[in-house]
Specification:
Strand 8 (about 275), helix 12 and strand 9 (about 315-320) form a beta-alpha-beta unit. The chain has two domains: about 10-15 and about 80-405, TIM Barrel (Alpha-Beta Barrel), CATH 3.20.20.70; about 415-470. The protein has an eight-stranded parallel β-barrel with strand order 1-3-4-5-7-8-9-10, surrounded by five helices. It has helices at about 20-30, 35-45, 55-60, 65-85, 120-135, 150-165, 185-190, 205-215, 220-225, 230-235, 250-270, 300-310, 325-335, 360-365, 375-385, 395-400, 405-410, 415-435, 435-450, 455-470, and strands at about 85-95, 100-105, 140-145, 175-180, 200, 215, 240-245, 275, 315-320, 340, 390. About 45% of the residues lie in helices and about 10% in strands. By secondary structure, the protein is of the alpha/beta class. Bound molecules: S-adenosylmethionine and iron/sulfur cluster (SF4).
């Protein structure tokens, strides 16, 4: 059983648990996997067993078109078995773009003279949150550069500020953070302030490449970033999100790096990551990554999502509007369980009344370019058309159901009883308060269809709660 008390700061691994040579050698060994071997790995994954580093390596090395299709289909089947048709929705919220680091791929790099630097005041942040609540969002990921002015105290105050905003019937009920690594005390502070998932992307697990692309600043320290979640877990923050930035190094290596990191957290703390993110490198103001040898093609991208789904069946997978709609729809089929909708990533991008706004200026505040500009309602419409059930559920985190092997996966019937039901209830809230006429009508048709899956008492309970939502009550969940 995970108990933060039992760990001391001194326990934080001094030596990195990712050995780059070891990963390269796994990558090489996986190249010799036979058809039979690949199929037996697929079978193991379909039995919901976690895959080892070697087994994952066998999958990432598959180049045969038909075999890749089999892997994708298996991933789609596994996803359906475990998650059903729910897709969780969130919005990113950038609060400031000051940064001390020189990351060669990022528009916020301290060496980028063309970026319009700003930090939102807490009043401006409230305006942004009001705008987000007005379109129906309940879950945000706040993000910012790395800078002394964005320390743990700032993040804790930010969380309190965002939770305090209540626009109409809206509220942000869960705030995830994507920010710089903290020390143990800092993680404790943001946990106490009510953080959801704390996300930190390693960007690349290859140390040599890491040092090439992180040219100066604190982020240049590979180990400090790699051991961030050891410090978080020792601080009692057991809800963490891993990630890599695809396009910095060989994607096959990065997939193995992620699995190595998951293995470390599971074996040391008995807690796996809540989510994995895998953004592809996008163009950004002042960033030049032309003719990049590590670019990940659409085909490989969709395939790697499928491999990850099979390798870590119980970890949420996040895709953002960095990807165009067509790609998003494809990876939803094979593994992704959370997406954003109606995203604006310019600092201050959501509300037009912020004093400094203006199209040209706003553009200079973005970290990179987005490829899916659809509104939340349009994204939801698309999900409905494809039979997905949009979910704004935040119940587990609010009821303290986090950490060691998420309840949803360890308790038989949990997903049906809680996740699926709460998806229906929170989607109904959206339909009542924010949806366009068309989406409301189609959305309720979808809910009716999904209600047919219940037998007996559970269905009755959900229908009672649904009626209460239609009569104006909010925030009802199981
Ligand atoms: N500054 C913090 C950090 O670096 O961890 C917080 C978050 S940063 C705003 C969020 C993530 O954006 C980074 O971890 C990186 O993976 C991603 N990112 C940076 N530049 C990007 C680009 N050009 N295209 C796609 N993603 C990018
Ligand atoms: Fe700063 Fe993060 Fe961008 Fe690096 S990725 S320059 S740390 S905002």
């Amino acid at each position: 059983m995970y108990n933060p008390q039992q760990y001391n700061i001194e326990d934080i691994p001094e030596k990195p648990f990712v050995d780059c040579d070891e990963i390269e050698s796994f990558l090489l060994r996986g190249k010799n996997g036979s058809f039979e071997q690949v199929r037996s790995v697929i079978c193991k994954a379909l039995n919901r067993e976690r895959l080892s580093l070697y087994e994952t390596s066998v999958l990432v090395n598959v180049t045969d078109k038909n075999l890749r299709e089999e892997i994708k289909e298996a991933a789609g089947e596994l996803k359906k078995k475990i998650y059903g048709n729910r897709i969780v929705l969130f919005a990113p919220l950038y609060t400031g773009n000051y940064c001390i680091n020189e990351c060669s791929y990022c528009g916020f790099s301290c060496k980028n003279q063309r970026v319009d630097r700003t930090s939102l005041t807490f009043d401006e942040i409230k305006e942004q949150v009001t705008a987000l609540e007005s379109c129906g969002h309940k879950r945000v990921v706040v993000s910012m550069g790395e800078h002394p002015c964005y320390g743990s105290g700032y993040i804790a105050d930010l969380l309190k500020t965002i939770y305090s905003v209540k626009e109409g019937k809206g509220a942000i009920r869960r705030i995830n953070v994507n920010a710089a690594p903290l020390d143990v005390e800092g993680f404790r502070k943001v946990k106490d302030a009510g953080v959801g998932t704390y996300q930190i992307f390693q960007e690349t697990y290859n140390k040599k490449r890491y040092r090439e692309v992180h040219r100066s600043g604190k982020k240049r320290d590979y180990e400090w970033r790699l051991t961030a979640f050891d410090r978080a877990l020792k601080a009692g923050l057991d809800d963490v999100g891993l990630g890599v930035l695809l396009g910095l190094y060989d994607w096959r290596y990065e997939v193995l790096g992620l699995i190595r990191h998951v293995n470390h957290l599971e074996s040391t703390y008995n807690v796996g990551p809540h989510t994995i993110s895998f953004p592809r490198l996008k163009s950004a103001l002042g960033v030049n990554f032309e003719n990049n040898e590590y670019d990940v093609s659409d085909e490989d991208f969709v395939f790697l999502v499928a491999v990850l789904r099979l390798a870590v069946p119980y970890t949420g997978m996040i895709l953002t509007a960095r990807e165009p709609a067509a790609i998003r729809d494809m990876v939803l089929r094979y593994g992704v369980s959370q997406i954003d909708g109606g995203s604006k990533i310019g600092v201050g991008g959501y509300s037009s009344s912020c004093s400094y706004m203006g199209i040209e200026k706003k553009h200079g505040r973005e970290q990179f370019a987005l490829n899916d500009m659809r509104s939340l309602d349009e994204v939801i419409h698309e999900l409905i058309k494809n039979g997905y059930l949009p979910s704004f559920c935040t119940a587990c985190y609010r009821l303290g159901r986090t950490g060691e092997h998420f309840m949803e996966f360890s308790v038989p019937g949990f997903i049906k009883r809680f996740c699926f039901s709460n998806a229906i209830l929170t989607f109904a809230e959206y339909l009542e308060d924010y949806a366009s006429v068309l989406v409301k009508q189609k959305g309720y048709n979808l809910i009716d269809k999904n209600l047919r899956q219940y037998r007996g008492k559970e269905g009755e309970k959900v229908i009672t709660l649904l009626n209460r939502i239609r009569n104006g009550e909010r925030d009802l969940f199981l």
